[in-house]
């Protein structure tokens, strides 16, 4: 706004011009439907969901899914995340940065621990995050970055968040610490991938 004011003799004119520009649809948003854009992709997964269904029955298992959905969706709302799709026993989400994705994961795991401390229907969630260019098409995301995020999630244990090197290197916040869990063979990927566990500094 200050730049507009300095360039205009009339503050009324500068404000009007600024509002007009801000209200225009960004070019990147139009191109996103068919092109590539940098994303941080998160997958959540309820651990042993099939076993839980057998133990608790369909109704009990659905109560767990509902609790999972509420915790994850609240964390997405608080950390600028967007749900891409529900996977039945997990959620695929996209974030504008590694910072928001990692800090969203920290919030999910903290809320999961609080839920398990107070509720009889205990369950656990694994989370995987990768960052890079994904193909955006028909309200979904595709490509290698998405596939690797899913594989990283599958490599995590219950109550664990794993991230790729791309996430660790692009995280610029102060709330998270990363510990290498070594390299893992990922289905569909020729070379092993190093993964890092996320822990909260707070």
Description:
With 202 residues, this protein is an alpha+beta fold. It contains 7 helices and 8 strands. The chain has helices at 2-7, 11-23, 27-31, 49-78, 98-118, 144-155, 165-170; strands at residues 36-46, 82-86, 91-95, 125-137, 140-142, 161-164, 176-184, 193-200. Strands 1, 2, 3, 4, 5, 6, 7 and 8 form an 8-stranded mixed sheet that branches. α4 packs across α5 (98-118). 34% of the residues are buried. The model is unreliable at 1-13 and 18-34 (pLDDT under 50).
Q: What would the keywords be for this entry?
A:
202 residues, alpha+beta, 7 helices, globular
pLDDT < 50 runs, ≥5 residues: 1-13, 18-34
Shape: globular
Number of helices: 7
Number of strands: 8
Rg result: 20 Å
The chain-level mean pLDDT equals: 85
Run of helices and strands: HHHEHEEHEEHEHEE
Strand residue percentage: 25-35%
Secondary structure layout plus pairing:
Elements: H1 2-7, H2 11-23, H3 27-31, E1 36-46, H4 49-78, E2 82-86, E3 91-95, H5 98-118, E4 125-137, E5 140-142, H6 144-155, E6 161-164, H7 165-170, E7 176-184, E8 193-200
Parallel strand pairs: 4-6
Antiparallel strand pairs: 1-3, 1-4, 2-3, 4-5, 6-8, 7-8
Helix pairs in contact: 4-5
Brief characterization of the structure:
This protein is of the alpha+beta class and 202 residues long.
């Amino acid at each position: 706004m200050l730049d507009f004011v300095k360039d205009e003799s009339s503050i009324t004119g500068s404000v009007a011009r600024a509002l007009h520009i801000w209200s225009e649809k960004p070019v990147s948003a139009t191109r996103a439907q068919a092109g590539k854009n940098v994303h941080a992709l998160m997958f959540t997964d309820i651990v042993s969901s099939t076993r839980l269904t057998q133990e608790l029955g369909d109704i009990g298992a659905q109560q767990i899914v509902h609790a999972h959905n509420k915790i994850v969706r609240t964390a997405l709302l608080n950390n600028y995340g967007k749900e891409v799709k529900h996977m039945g026993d997990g959620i695929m989400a996209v974030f504008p940065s590694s910072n928001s994705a990692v800090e969203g994961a920290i919030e999910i795991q903290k809320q999961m621990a609080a839920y398990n401390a107070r509720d009889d229907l205990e369950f656990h969630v694994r989370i995987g995050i990768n960052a890079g260019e994904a193909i955006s098409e028909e309200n979904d995301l595709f490509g290698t970055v998405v596939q690797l995020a899913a594989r990283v999630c599958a490599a995590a244990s219950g109550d664990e968040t794993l991230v790729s090197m791309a996430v660790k290197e692009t995280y610029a916040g102060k709330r998270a610490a990363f510990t290498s869990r070594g390299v893992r063979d990922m289905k569909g990927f020729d070379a092993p991938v190093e993964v890092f566990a996320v822990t909260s500094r707070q």
